[in-house]
Amino acid sequence: MINPQMLKQIKKMQEDIKKVQAEINASTFYGSAGGNVVQVAVKGTKKVESIDIKTEEVGLDDIEMIQDLIVAALNDAFYKVDKELEETLGSITQGMNVPGLF
To answer: Residue 33: left (phi > 0), alpha (psi -120 to 50), or beta?
Structure first.
């Protein structure tokens, strides 16, 4: 038989996870590369909001370098989203191994 108190705790955890997920999805995370030559902003949903390239600090004729910096800045921002999810949701689940959560 399932413990009613355990069911309450699971339901509260589910509600907390939904709330945190919504907050993270609405948040903006920033990534950068090349000493801030390229800066990006992404939502918690990993939707790219903006890319800023300091053209005065990089030659526009070096497209490959600019592309590499954009990729690195995006990966930096996506890492920050994943880290925030892991840390925040981890505090809610308190170390419980919940399959499919991460």
So the answer is: beta
